[in-house]
Each structure stands twice: as C-alpha cells, then as structure tokens.
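Task 17 of the worksheet. Students: predict the tertiary structure of the chain below and write it out as structure tokens. Keep your answer in the requested format; marks are given for formatting as well as content.
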Amino acid sequence: MTSPGSPSAARSPLALAAALYTVLALAVTWPAALRPASWLIGHPAGDQWLNLWGYGWVRESLLAGRFPLRVDQLGHPDGGWLFYLDLLNAVFAVPLEPWLGAVATYNLLVWFNMVLAGVGAFVLVRHLTRDAGAALLGGLIYGFSPYLLGAVANGVTETLTIGWLPLFVHQLLRLGETGRWRHAAGAAAMAAACLLGCLYHGVMAAIAGVLIVGHGLVLRRPRWPLSRLAGLAAVGAIAGVVVLFLHHELRRAEDSPNNLAGGLPAQSSLGANPDWRIRSLTTDPVNLLLPGKPDLPERSQTNIVNHVTYLGWLVLALAGFGIWEGRRAEVTAAADGERPAMAGRRERLLWVALTLVFLVLSMGNILRVAGQPVSVGGRLLLLPGAALDALVPVLSAGESKYRLTLVVMLGLAVLAGWGWSRLATRLGPAAGRLAMAGVAVALLAETVLLSPALVPVPGDRDATPAYCRELADDPDPGAVFDLPFHSGVQVFGRYVYQAHVHGKPIPYIFQEAMPRSMFAVPSVAELVDWSQGLGGREPLPAALEASRGELRRMGFSKLIVHLPVAEDLASNAERLGRALQLLDDTFGHPERDDGEVRVYEVARMGAAPVQGGGEATE
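Model answer:
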C-alpha cells in the first residue's frame, strides 16, 4: 500500500483531477471528440479559422529558420507584416500538424489548455490550502469558468493559455519560501510561457508578481528573507529579456506601413456600446452578477460569447466564506511560526487584494454600469485603468481590459478553496466527500444553465471545398481571389484558412479587410462591392472587364466564387443566376462548377511552385 507521504500518493490526487478535467473538457466541447479532424471547436463567427492559418504560417517560418513576421501569402499583392499573438500554441502545433492535420491539432490544443488551466489552479490551491478537495474545486472554478468557456467559443486562441499563470504564481511562492534555484528556474519558465502565450497574460503575471513579492518581503518575513532577492532578480531578468524581444518584434510589425493586423479601428473606450451585455470590451459590474444566455441565434454573425465576465454566485459564496473563516484559519501558520489568526489575515489579504485590484483594472478607463458611462458632476468617473495605459501600452492598444478578469477568477478560486477547506473540516470526511461532489455539480450547473457562456461550446464542420485541396498540387504560383467579399468572420476567416490549405496568395488580411492597393483600383473595388450585394445592382460590363485586366496585372490566377456564401447573400435564385452569368460573360466559362465553388481562370502565372506556404521568393 502506498504511504500517505510517498511521491505517488502526492501525485494521485493531481492525476485524478487531470483525468476529471480531461473528461469535462471533452464534454463541454461535444461533439468535437467524435470528429476531431473535421469538427472545429468554436463559434462559427469566431477567429479559430484565422488561427488555423496562423499555426501553419508560424510552423513554416520557424522550420525555415526565421521569426514569423513578414507575410507574403496574405494581403496580396502587397503582403505585409504581422505579429502573431498566439505564439506558444503555434510552437506546440509545429510537430503535431503534419501528423494530425490542422483541425485536429487545433482541437487538441484547446483541450490541452483547458486541462492545463484546471491543473494549474489545482496545484496552486493545493499548495495554499493543503487540501486536495479544495484544490479540485479551485481547478473547476478557474479551468471551467464562464470566462474560459467564452474564450474557447470566440476562437481567440491566445486567451486560452491561462494555465501558465497559476503555475507561475505557484513557482514564485515556492521561490520565496525556499530560495531554491530550481523554483527560480520554474518561475522564469512559467513567466516566459505567460508572455509567449498571450501578452495580456504576461502583463497580468508582472502585476501579480509585484504584489506577491511585495507581500512576501514585507508581510511574510521571516519566511521570505531578503536573501530571496537574488532568485527573484533572476526571474525578473529572464522575463525582461523575453519582454524586450517580443516588444522589438511587435514594434517592427506595428511600425510597418503595411501592418496586416491593423485593418479595423479600435473601439473607443469612451464611445457608447449599445450591445453592452455581450460585447463590452471592459468588465461591466452588472455582467459580473447578471445571469442569462444571450438572446441571439447560435449561428449569428455576431460572436455572442466573446466577452464573458460572469463570476458565479456559488463561487462568490464560497469565496466569501473563505474570507470570513480565514480569520481563524491556520493556513501555513505552523511553518511560519506565527500566530494562526495573524497568518490567516496575511494570506487572506494578498488574495483579496489581488482579486480587487484586477477587478478594478478590468473595468477599463471609465466606469460603466449596464453599458452606460457613469459621470459625477458632469465628469466621467475615471478608473485606474486610464493610468495603467501609460505604463503598459499593449493594454491601451488592445482595448480589451475585460481579459484582466482572469486574475479575478484565480483569486476567487483560491479564496473559495479556503472556504471549502474550512467547511469540509466542519462536515467531517464522509459528509465532506458527498458535499464536495454536490458543490462540484452545482458549480458546473450554474455555468451551464445561468452564465452567458454557451455549453456545449459551439463548433462547425470543416467545409473546405475539395477544389481548394486539389489546388495545392497546382504548380501555378498565381494568387487566388475569393468571392463574395463578406465581412462575416466565418466567411473571410475560412478564406484565410483555405489559403493555408491550397498555399496560394490571397488578398485578405487578419482584420476582415483587403489591402489598400486593391480598393484603390476602381474596377476591382466595383467587383468587390457588387459581390457583397451579389446582384442587388447591375455593375457596368466595362467595369467588370477592366477588373479582369487589373487582376491579371496584380498576379491573380483564379477567381473562386463560393456558392454557399453566394446563395446566402443573393435574395433569390434568379438574382444569383444573373450574377453568375455576368461573371461568365466577363471571365469566360468556369473551369469548375461542382456545387461548392465556381472557378474562373484569370491568367496562368507560370509553373514555379510557391514556396514557404505561399511566401514569395526573390
């Protein structure tokens, strides 16, 4: 029999928790587990299709020995520069995609990040509470929060990498407690993972780290002696090197006149947002507590679960109980040699402070309640987030401070873990195990039934036309022009993903727009505008004929009309028929018409193969 103090006994609760989190990750993303290679996790209007292209581009760039920055496949004919935010997941995808394919690789990384989030919180909460049951609930609260499920649905994959943050905090705490260099190395590695996973998570790790170190050196002495500064400085130095490198590459992309990530203007932090319930880029206090699902159809053009900041009433109740009972808790008191009440207050102070600080910062630059800015005496009520913008430019550029809710969820997971630990002590072992199962089910039920997050997470099948896969074998390096032009993310995003499949340059970029050089040509702009209404008005035949010549001049070989999209845009079959006949008259008889696509040959550009996934060579 395994003794309680043996390494295998210490690992078994974590292994059981990881197994449970894996089952839950598969369940909340059902039916992706049945069709992992053809069913992509994420709302149909999410950004996951773009990231399928991004993973392939990063892979090809790294294997070619260059940092992924310059892009020639997107934004044809100009190409451009792109700082790809989801670098860590893209690196993990490098060895996986050749074996699993793009869709299965993406799904596997989604599941991995969900399980890692639960495991990371489990490790941290167990360290703080010395209670495996509390750690299990902490992992559920953090790893399967409405926030994370909303992030899974929106397909902005860098926001899924939340598991590294609690692991960083755990290693930082261990470094302060032991002073061992292996914990310094672990903290540095986790800090780098936070930065590479998501720049926002790197900012969160930095702010949280400063608060934790300050708390340790001021309030946790002698357990955190000043001799710990050497290891802490090493962690800061390594993280600083990563920050400087990423900042340098980010500035190179942003300073480029052709930044492919800059197609849409950022939402003003002062402008009214009528769709505050589901689209607010900052945390609205009402959304923290207001239950209910968004009242929109599942396949809406709007990504209805983009920003979920609902905390959960049961989580708040457990956390509140943990704060109240912490007055008498003996959390880590024996190791500190302090009075139990004082130790409890000091531990509680740190996590209450972390939770409140990030809650306020997540509310942005001005306070909004139910979507409306709050003013006092005719002046908008400014929040500390306005000052933070000057210190951390990435927060100002991104206008997505709701993401700071992540640390709020981690703080609540820790406080709720303490609350459960105290409650379980009162209940006793047998009743405690039964009660824990009930609380776990209740936590999941509240998320499923009451939170704005959609469970199971929406998904969609990979409907890439067969022609796009066949086009990959075509040696013609000419670019492909996909029509209809459509601002719906699921349409334009699939055009970008299909470029990864066929390997040819396309005019689309990451923010739903085409390069300025495309719209600067009147005949091409006419073709694009007409395709958006698809037969709603009749274009001049001369303009269409001119567009064919301009597309040839810009190096396009194929014009692909995606028939399902065209049918959705056209008001009736007769109008669609007239539109297609106009294209026949202009571009000639289609070389392919299979019900999925209608393909017109614009010109043959040559027989040299495209190299590097579509990146042009000199």
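Marker's comment: The first helix runs from residue 7 to 28. Residues 1-7, 263-274, 329-343, 607-618 have pLDDT under 50 and may be disordered.
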